[in-house]
Amino acid sequence: MQITNSEEKMIALCGMNCSYCYVHHKKKKPCLGCRLSDEGKPEHCRKCKIKDCANEKSVIFCSECPDYPCVLIKRLDKSYRTRYKESLINNMKVINEKGMDYYLRFEKKRLKCPECKGVLNIHHKECSQCGKIFEVVELK
Ligand SMILES: [Zn+2]
Does any domain span residue 97? Predict the structure, then answer.
């Protein structure tokens, strides 16, 4: 797979879409995304073993790796499913099976604040503009 635009560039190797990360929407020193600058990036993302591994193997997404889903990805995915009811493995699955455009369109609708049209983050389902919290449907 190739990354062709700035929206796609926001999707990390592991399938996390940094566009919907709460750290990306912080008012002060927001993180620009996994694939971009380290400035504002949380320590666990700067020192991410998954990122190092994927870079070493020169894959654009972890799902291109013959070992996918490896134990590192499974562990992170489990943590996301438990804590945030989101699955990075499912993100990758939808991208690979239904296409990048489908995925990006779905997320834009799913993670849009119903009140002010701001962007919800997947960690807290909280709107980056009005601060309200919402339930969101599952990505599929
Ligand atoms: Zn809002």
Answer: yes
Token couple for 86: 């989101």
pLDDT at 21 over 90: yes
Residue 135 lies in a domain: no
Cα gap 116→131, rounded to integer Å: 10
39 CA from centroid of ligand 1 (Å): 26
Report the separation in Å between the CA atom of 75 and the middle of ligand 1, taken as the mean of its atom positions: 32
Distance 81 CA to ligand 1 centre (A): 24
| Residue owning tokens 């134990």 | 71
* Structural domain that includes position 84: 6-110
How far are the Cα atoms of 65, 85, 89, 138 from residue 127, in angstroms, in the given order? 34, 17, 24, 17
Task: Quote the mean pLDDT of the chain.
Answer: 97
Instruction: Judge if pTM exceeds 0.90.
Output: yes
50: Cα separation from own chain's centroid = 13
For residue 113, the CA-to-ligand 1 centroid distance in Å is: 5
Split into its structural domains, the chain has a count of 1
